[in-house]
Amino acid sequence: MKEITDRRFPNGKFEYGKNYSNEDTRKQIKTIAELPKDLKKVLKKFRDGALDRSYRAGGWTARQVINHIADSNMNAYIRFKLAATEIAPIIKPYEENLWAETDDAKYGSPKTSVKLLAALHVRWVNFLMSLSEDDLERGYYHPANKLTVSIREAIALYAWHSKHHLAHLKMVADGNIEKSVDSKKTKASKPAKASEAPDSKKRVMSEGHKDKIRAAQQARRAAEKASKPAAITAVTAEAPKKRGPKPNPALAAAKAAKAAEKGKPGRKANPAVAAAKAAKAAAPKLSRAEVMEKARAAAAANRAAKAATAPKKVTAEKGKPGRKPNPEVAAAKAAKAAAPKKTAAEKGKPGRKPNPEVAAAKAAKAAAPKLSRAEVMEKARAAAAANRAAKAATAPIKAVAEKGKPGRKPNPAIAADKAAAPKKTAAEKGKPGRKPNPAVAAAKAAKAAAPKLSRAEVMEKARAAAAANRAAKAATAPAKAVAEKGKPGRKPNPEVAAAKAAKAAAPKKTAAEKGKPGRKANPAVAAAKAAKAAAPKLSRAEVMEKARAAAAANRAAKAASAPKNVAPAKPTRARRSSEEVAAEKAAQASKPKLSRAEVMEKARAAAAANRAAKGQPAKAKKDPNAPKLTRAEVMEKARAGRTAKKK
Q1: Could you tell me the CATH number of the domain that includes residue 36?
Q2: Which of 80, 115, 191, 613 has its CA 20 to 30 A from that of 160?
Q3: What is the end-to-end Cα distance of the chain in Å, rounded?
Q4: Are 93 and 8 contacting, i.e. CB atoms less than 8 angstroms apart?
């Protein structure tokens, strides 16, 4: 029983309730930080099949242990975070035995868990190193153990947990595996051989390990064979001894000489080829770019040599598959091939000017200043309009007889009458079903000839027309009597109808007479409103400009009355043209770039000037000769600062 307990807890059980110093906590954090590296070292020692072996009978396999460490430490990280940010939180326990039986823990790759632990422990250790002594005394409540565990004690627990499972994995890596009870019984029943000691251990190699050994042996033999020199004496001296008859040096020398004379089967040895191969092997290796360049040059030289030596086939000789050669066609092609080729200037292009003029036009175009997008679009629109006008002037109008209609045959008599008939003007045509109106035609012609109005003018004209329309309707439409209107669901009241009629007939009060409910009429306000209504409406740009001027005047008045509290008015930025912006960017780009030290020096000078303007004291410079603080002193200083801030 003692042996099983030792295998289950090789480092002993963890004891709660102990006191730990700051130095102990630092060592325990270091143990937690080094766990991923320690796991990688142990995994390198594992043989084939060791991951699926257990360190004790009925225990987890090595694969399950590694995946369990990842599960446990993820939960631990969350517990530590909760304890540091809440007041004695109640944590959520988990069934670690059931977690270890899930497929990802039982069959998953341990490398994934090691990678996960490497990333997790970086965050975890950084978090632990940032905790103060007060933070280390905070804790969480474990409902399964019914204990409140402080963060300091939890660090000790998970440092023990890391060593605990590392000891299990080292057992498996060293082959120190507990044999099952059944295997002990079977071995005890068999008689022991005299040559075997009672405590001897046999190692059974797996098939994968055997394949690796065979592959290594074959690679070693191939390397030895490649390193053998041509002389048979050196071969016999360096070759490992083999079982069987001893080698015959004379026979081996004869075979080597015969093989050297043969060269390759079916070919005689060529000294020139051998010398070329040796020179190629001794030459420095070319890069990929040099090899490609050399190949292209060789291919070009090969093509040029072929073109110079190979006679051109006559077209009559070539012919085409499935056709008989035509002597006349062949003669024409041969004459065309023999004729001198035209130059590019003589050829030109169909429908284009000769080459010199085109070149001159292109040069002039390249030398001309580039147009803006708006100018290019304007030029294109003008060219398109001119093109359309030219087409309309030159293109003949299709006769009706030519057009025809789908599904009907053209009638020559009707087509001739339509073509001979004079065309009607727009005023004569009018609209289908209406007689032409000379006044309407004249109005349309005047409208077409009039200059186009801007959007603001069109809107103003529409508003004036709508107002005139409403005024005309109000003047002409008779007002309905109140008695005629009535209301649905009610009987008309003669007295009420008479009062409403009298009110409608009475002259309406002006704005100055009305005023506002609860206020007396103000003649000045009424006059200002009337003047505002009579004034011409401003455009949007004028309204915005007026508003900006009023805002600037308001800010100036406030700044004059309260200079300390009110910020100075922001200067308005005038809009710049694209040429000015481009020139400024070019000037900025041409300036020499500052180094990092110069930029930092400039920033420090600006910050010092800003502090001086605000009346703040200058920042004290660090003494370069001052001794550097240790990590413990830095942490102590930071804790003291936080404590002072809390107070």
Answers
A1: 1.20.120.450
A2: 115
A3: 57
A4: no
